[in-house]
Structures are given as C-alpha cells and as structure tokens.
Amino acid sequence: MNGETVEHIPVLVNELAEHVNLPPDGVVVDATIGQGGHSLLFGQNLGPEGVIVGLDVDTESISRARFILKKLACRVILIHGNFARIHEHLHNRNIDKVDFIFADLGVSSTQLADPQRGLSFQTNMPLDMRIDKRIRRTAADIIKETDEKGLADLIYGYGGERASRRIARFIVRSRRQAPITTTTQLAAIVCRALGRTHPGKSRIHPATRTFQALRIAVNDELGNLAGMLDEAQPLLNKSGRIAVISYHSLEDALVKKDFKMNEKGGMYRVITKKPIVASRREIAANRRARSAKLRIAQKTID
C-alpha cells in the first residue's frame, strides 16, 4: 500500500451508526468498499461468525481496504467487481441472503488526487476518468468521437449544465485545432466557453458539471446503480436494511424512486422519508460531506 495516498474520510458515519444495528453473526455487503472506512465501523459490531463482503471496481481501493480491515474479528471477503452484478458475486461465494447492503457512491479523495485517473481539473492529468481500468473508452475518447449535439446532451443530461450547447461548440472547435487529451485543457475550454476562470458566486469551478457528466458517462454510473438497486431487494433478509449515500441529484432520484417503488409493493419500509445530510460540523471538517445524502430502507418480507 502506498504510504503517500491521500487520506479519505468516510462521511455520515455517526448517522449510519444510529440506523444500523447488526447482529454479531450478521452478513454485510459494502458494495463500494473504497478504503474500508465505513466497513471498519460495521465490522466493530460483528463477531467471528460475521461476514463483510466488500466490492469495488478499483483494485487499489481493495488493497487499501484489506490493510484497514485486517484486524477485524469477522471474516472479510474482498471482490474486484462491479456492484451492478451484486447477486452473481454473492452467489459465487455461496451467499444467498444478507442483513445489510451499503453503497457510498462518491469518488474518493485518493482517486481524485491520483494523477493517472484524470478526475480532477486542479492539476494536469490525462483525460481518462475510468475508475475501473477494464473499461476501454476514456473521457478523451468521448470528447474526440462524440458529435456536438451528443456532447451537449451528455453535459446537460448528466451534469445539469445549462450552457451545455455552448460548451460543446467550444469543445468541437478546439479539437479541430488540437486533440484534447488532458484535464487542464478541457477545463480551460469550458472556462472560455462560460467566460469565467474562477468559481465566483457559485462556489464551484466552472468545469465541475462538465467533468461530472463525463465521469458518469465513462463509468456508466447510473446504469450500474440501477442494476445494484434491482438486485439488492431479493438479497436482503427480512428486517435487513439497505443504505445508499449519493452525491448528486441523478443518483439520489434513482435511489428515492427504487425505495418508494419497493415500499409501494410491500417489500420495503422507507426509514428516511427525507435524506439524511451532514451536520455543519462534519462539513467544516470534510468538504466532501456537503453534498452527501443518505437514504435507508428496511426489508419487510421474507
């Protein structure tokens, strides 16, 4: 494990602790194991008969989680896999039912700081954005190959960027002159398109929404989330819970819709009628928590 990695602080841990009561022999699925911060919390309530199954598409995250969780009394199973196939991954380990499923949908601080990921415009990085390196198409490929209308639709649909058409026009114009291959290149183009070089009153960088849209597209984040939510409900034991932390409205809307649909069908009881958000104190200590929304549902039938 690289000792120089950026510290990643798990969000909403106190709120999760209040709503998750695991038996000593409980089976937990952390669908986004990350660096293991949340699972470390869950594992403290588990005994030798308990199990944590951790999934992640990032092999480096799995390595860090293995180090963090090695002293837990429970069994820890770490899997390099996408949570969209959560049922398959558990079935392959002879696990049919679980007590708790958790997913933190955010990109970690370590991933943002990784110069090879291409997720940040704060420093110059290759325009990659793949969390899972098995994915073939990078953000640079999308920028190079997608026509102007397609780019505008993508930036608006996944980023909520109102100036998406203008940004797409500037991207197409710029790529005719030279390939767009780095994060700072793209960020500068977006800034020129918006006539801004700093956050201003909005408090976010002008390129934030465009970068979010590309990251979602590259990693099929919404498709994978929908797949995970579909497969989660049958896996839960009666009274088992599912908790999801999302960071933008598209993710949160998917989670909210799934929980409500399952509640209407008599499968779930929604614990959080409104999403739980971070306290001012937590946001002051960890800016990443400012956009986090936690929703929790409980299985009501066998």
What does this protein look like?
The protein has 302 residues and is of the alpha/beta class. It folds into 2 domains: 13-110 and 221-299, Rossmann fold; 116-219, DNA polymerase, domain 1, CATH 1.10.150.170. It is 43% helix and 15% strand. The chain has 13 helices and 8 strands. The chain has helices at residues 13-19, 37-43, 59-69, 86-91, 109-113, 139-145, 148-159, 164-177, 183-194, 208-219, 221-235, 249-264, 280-285; strands at 27-30, 51-56, 75-80, 98-104, 236-246, 268-270, 276-277, 293-299. Strands 1, 2, 3, 4, 5, 6, 7 and 8 form an 8-stranded mixed beta sheet that branches. Strand 2, helix 3 and strand 3 form a beta-alpha-beta unit. The protein is elongated and about 60 Å long. The N and C termini lie far apart (41 Å). Mean pLDDT is 93; it is low at 1-6.
- The chain-level mean pLDDT equals 93
**Annotation, overall tally of beta strands:** 8
Helix and strand string, N-terminal first? Answer: HEHEHEHEHHHHHHHEHEEHE
Biggest sheet, open or closed, and with what strands and sense? 8 strands, mixed
Return residue spans where pLDDT drops below 50 for at least 5 consecutive residues: 1-6
Q: Give the number of helices.
A: 13
Structural class: alpha/beta
- Principal-axes shape call: elongated
Number of domains: 2
CATH superfamily of the largest domain: Vaccinia Virus protein VP39
User: Ends: how far apart?
Assistant: 41 Å
Portion in strands? 15-25%
Helicity range: 40-55%
Q: Which CATH class of the largest domain is shown?
A: Alpha Beta
Task: Give the oligomeric state of the chains in this entry, treating copies of one chain as homo and distinct chains as hetero.
Answer: single chain
